[in-house]
Amino acid sequence: MPEQLSDGHARGARSVPFRGGGFAPKPVRLIAPLVFIGLIAFWEIGSRMGFIGKLVLPAPSEAFEAFRQLVETGMLWKHLGASLYRLVVGWVCGTALGISVGVLIGLFSVARAGLSPLVSAIFPIPKIALLPLFVIWFGIGEGSKVATILFGTFFPTVIATYGGVDNVDRSLIRMGQSFGLPWSSIVRKIILPGALPAILSGFRISVSIAIVLLVAAEMIGAEFGIGAYILLAGNLMATDQLIAGVAILSIIGLTIAWLIGRAERYFLRWRS
Amino acid sequence: MDLQLRNVSHSYGDVDVLDAIDLEIKSGQIVCIIGPSGCGKSTLLRVIGGLERPDAGQILQIGEPPTGSLNPLTYIFQDFALLPWRSVEGNISIALEDQPVARGERKEIIDDVLARTKLSDFRKALPRQLSGGMKQRVAIARALCVKPAVLLMDEPLSALDGQTRALLMDDLIDLWTRERFTACYVTHNLGEAVMLGHRIAVLSRRPGRIREIVEIDVPLSERQENRADLEVHQKRLWDVMRDEARAADRELADA
């Protein structure tokens, strides 16, 4: 039988005030592109009307024109190719080494005692400061540039990986042992997948470090590369080319972040 | 295969956890171990299955495990211990992948345990999609797939809500009635102990000693109907435990 309610209004009833809202940002489409377009439109109009000086900041249309020339002369691919090659080789090697060392530190007491203080000591050194040293060690060519990126991505990857290994649920490892799984299977089937979320979020950090180091390394003795292009543009006061170069870097960064996002969604689809 | 614990003692640093435990787990019987929280029940179970080495004493296997047993001492954990990145099927398969079992046979075993635990429709599901009760069923299926000689169950129902617990309890009773498995069942819940245990060992608070062993000879399948008998046992067990539990409740964890 449904409940019979008494007549509340007769006894001065009020609605209970709502006080539970807020603190839950939701994704809103269109806002981001609007902000972006608005800002560029303001910049373009400002340049045309003259209240943004041409030398201070060239109009977006001029920067785009510089970019178009880069495409037309075919130089874009030369610069981009050189940069991406250094980025990929440096990052892949740095990450592979970083994951291996991170797993060693995560699993073995001796490796942890020996290597983790070393990692802590070298990690905070800005690798740009070591660049001249790398030039002496590995030569002015590709070697020093790749080594800088390798070094820069190695340390954050080590730290992310062993943090991830440390955080693997111990009860899962005990489960593996209780079913008599061999050591290699416990590492491969329980520890590595368990550390993967931390490793992937380490990738985000190491990639942005890699891009910063790429540009820095290309500013010393590089003929081609986005960094070299930007440096040359700066020396010639060609600010339109400079803006075009910086925009290319931003696009590289966004593309890689998007790829990592896809990888996370694919590899971590088991997460709630 | 029977298990025998002889004079098992263990301590963590200065804290004595287990003190001279003698216990026998006979084939086909469920031995329940109850005791106040922090009395070393879970440590005892880890020691029995070889996940922890006791400071003193022995755990003996008497007789051979049944032929075909891939992992004679198999645990079922309180927190289920399912790999979140593997499906139901994959979580069961992990127990078989490193065993000398051919691929086709592995599939047959998995199909069989899924059917026995009524999970066949969920084989592709991920743990995050399952309720607590279903997760524990998967863990039970995983334990059954290696044909254990003794099941070591560490508070398997404690992470579940009351209704799920009752459902799973019925499943366990069904399973025992069909298969007569041997088990050591650790719990702090007296009701679970009197429903499942052929013998119930009461541990004292830290350091855990066996205070009393109670035998209940009502067959498992008839216990639902003989509530009154069980009440008597349960009350007696509670009388033994009450003061221990009260004292344990007032202890500091690291004192």
Overview of this structure, please?
The complex is a heterodimer of chains A (272) and B (255). Chain A is an all-alpha fold. Chain A has a single domain, classed as MetI-like fold, CATH 1.10.3720.10. The longest helix of chain A is centred in the C-terminal third of the chain and has 36 residues. The two termini of chain A are 40 Å apart. Chain B has two domains: 165 residues, Rossmann fold, CATH 3.40.50.300; 65 residues, no CATH class. Chain B is built from seven helices and nine strands; from the N terminus they run βββαββαααβαβαββα.
From the structure above, extract its key features:
heterodimer, A: 272 residues, mainly alpha, MetI-like fold, 10 helices, 72% helix, B: alpha/beta, Rossmann fold, 2 domains, three-stranded antiparallel beta sheet, globular
Secondary-structure map:
The complex is a heterodimer of chains A (272) and B (255).
Chain A: H1 31-49, H2 60-72, H3 75-107, H4 109-122, H5 131-138, H6 142-166, H7 170-178, H8 183-218, H9 226-235, H10 239-267
Helix pairs in contact in A: 2-10, 3-4, 3-6, 3-8, 3-9, 5-6, 6-8, 7-8, 8-10, 9-10
Chain B: E1 2-12, E2 15-25, E3 30-34, H1 41-48, E4 56-62, E5 73-76, H2 88-93, H3 103-116, H4 132-145, E6 150-154, H5 162-179, E7 182-187, H6 190-196, E8 199-203, E9 210-215, H7 227-249
Parallel strand pairs in B: 3-7, 3-8, 5-6, 6-7
Antiparallel strand pairs in B: 1-2, 1-4, 8-9
Class by SSE composition of chain A? mainly alpha
Largest sheet of chain A: none
SS-based structural class of chain B? alpha/beta
How many independent structural domains of chain A?
1
CATH topology of chain A: MetI-like fold
| DSSP summary: helix tally of chain A | 10
Q: What would a concise description of this structure say?
A:
Chain A is mainly alpha-helical. Chain A is built from 10 helices and no strands. Chain B contains 7 helices and 9 strands; from the N terminus they run βββαββαααβαβαββα.
